[in-house]
Amino acid sequence: MDPFRSRPEALPAVIPIFPLQGGLLLPGARLPLNIFEPRFLAMVEEALGQGRLIGMVLPDPAYPRVEGRSTPYRTGCLGRIASFAETEDGRYLITLRGLNRFDLLEELPETPRGVRRVKADYAPYHADLEDAPAGEVVDREALLAALRSYFRALNIEADWEAIRNTDAAKLVTSLCMMCPFGDAEKQALLTAPDHAARAGLLISLLRIESAGPVAGKAPS
Question: Secretion signal: which residues (predicted)?
Answer without folding.
Answer: none
